[in-house]
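Team,

Forwarding the record for the chain on the shared tracking sheet. I've put the sequence and predicted structure together so nobody has to dig through attachments.
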Amino acid sequence: MRALLSIVAGLVLGVLAAPASAQLCSQPGQIFLKNDNLADIPGTANVSIIPGLCEGEAMGCVFDVSVQQFSSEVRVASVAGAFINNVNTAGISAIVNVKIYDGISWVGTTPVLGTEVLDFEGATGSSLQFNSSGINTVDLTNLNVRITSGKLVVAFFMEMNNGGGSCATGYTTNFATDNAAPPCSGSCSPARKNLIFIQGQGWRDPTNATVSGFPICSCYYAGNWIIRSCVEPVGFPRTYCTGKLNSANCVPAIGWTGSATLTSGPDNFHVRCTNVINNRSGLFYWGTQSAAAPFLGGTLCVAQPVRRTGVQNSGGSPTGINCNTGVYDYFFTQAYAAANSVTAGVDYYGQFWMRDPQNLDGTGASLSNAIHFRFSP
């Protein structure tokens, strides 16, 4: 990034005019991940070009799929990145390579990427062409790219930039971020979210990266890389359906800890629900079919017949009303599974119901989203 020290290579505002076809996911069941803060289908949006990113360097980001609780193991169906011209000229090309890594760790502020699970050029024997001025999507469905760590790292390497400029002076067409503020006044992204590969240094976090002693944030970099991905959950459990907003303005969120095993593993499978109102009764119910039907002002995610577990209290703060201190935790024991004829490999679905007397819809109840789970032997 030699050009970072040139005024020419300071942050340059551009316009993204991406067609809707370049956005979202193409298949049911795929989950849309977005590193930037633009609209899912941004249409025309002000963005920032990073002109000092040279050939041989890369933009990257970290998607934490584990916190979304749909599954730590996912198959990567597609990735997408923005290649933008400073005056929105279309048809300028670049040769790009995509690499995907399974996991990331940190030594201080320096990222250490996990196992490389995809080098697109190495896997296919061909390079990728990106065109300005918009978001370019790369289909990976035939490559069976999987990550199991819960941290998906997507990187786009610039191999040949055919836009105007050079590494020494900066390029007029390049990878871009969602920053719309003028140079040196934008906000840098949260730490450990965006990545940049700098010649002679390797991978760095742009929030604290320097070139020749000069920080690149925020005159030469600001915002979040425009990088997106569509993934498919592979492992179980996973979540689905939609929870109902409660009277504390939170949406109850289902999750889990431990592993669902009948006899072969530890007896530690718990189904949990957070973002719930403190000191309210609730219960977990489950069955063998999913649903998506109107129910109590929300969505019934499990089809009848269902089995209801015992009522429990969310606990939390003894006074007041909030949704950050209480939790429901149903211990789905191996003994309970055996008593209810749970079978290994069968699909099961579950959801939490909880009392919510102050709910404005008058139903007196709220609902979580749902969990899809299977037991191993």
